[in-house]
Amino acid sequence: MNKKNIREKMLQIRNNIKKEVKNQKDEKITETFIGLLLKNNIKSVLLYASFGSEVDTWRIFQFCLENSIKTAFPKVMGTQLELYWVKDKEELFPGYKSILEPKNGLKAFIEEIDVIAVPGIAFDYKCFRIGYGGGYYDRVLENKKGVAVGLAYEEQIIDEIPIEPHDKRLDLIITDERMISCV
User: Fold this and answer.
1) Which of the ends of the chain has fewer CB neighbours closer than 10 A, N or C?
2) What is the dihedral of CA 169, 56, 74, 44, to 10 degrees?
3) What does UniProt give as the signal peptide span (predicted)?
């Protein structure tokens, strides 16, 4: 299957996860992600503003706020993601495709972020992913110093994703059942 077919099929699978099951899965992923932050004494995180059937990031954001972990969110600017430090959900407004993003504020740089939470539609055992097709995260991950972590439901893991030269590998994938490490 090509990326387009995988994207369509996996989005349908993710969208069909029942709400109560999704909530339980989100809780497990959140616990594992927070455990990673605590174990490694993480000081800064890049989160995505979850929407639709994506793995929820709002409990992680709340934890970061309560534990003085600096948190950035992306903003789509043309073909790039700009990153901004955010201290409150009220600083986020509907932006690109109605996804919440910072309007402006103190700019963050990928090189200063310890852990990068990466959304996706499908992931494989080699820590490659298929997103929505814009390449935004592939571009932002080019200069990363921190650990790139894909957040996924177990249903989103497939054997292999067809990769292209621009595709960036993640370091880790956290699902509701396990962690897949590629470091």
Assistant:
1) C
2) -80
3) none
Binding residues, by number, are 3-7, 54, 129-137
Torsion sign across C-alpha atoms 101, 106, 111, 113: negative
Give the tens place of pLDDT for each residue, 6-53. 999 999 999 999 999 999 999 999 999 999 999 999 999 999 999 999
Query: What residue numbers does the annotated binding site for ATP cover?
Result: 3-7, 129-137
Number of domains, the chain: 1
pTM over the 0.70 mark: yes
Binding residue ranges for substrate:
54
Contact 15, 53 (CB under 8 A): yes
For 42-56, letters b (16+ CB in 10 Å) and e give bebbbbbbbeebbbb
Residue with tokens 């992913």: 129
CATH number at residue 39: 3.40.50.10420
Name the residue among 80, 77, 98, 22 with its Cα closest to residue 54.
22
pLDDT digits 0-9 by tens, 150-164: 999 999 999 999 999
Using the predicted structure, report yes or no on whether residue 100 has a pLDDT greater than 90. Answer: yes
Which residue range(s) make up the domain with 177? Answer: 3-181
Whether residue 72 contacts residue 108, with contact meaning beta carbons closer than 8 Å, is answered with yes
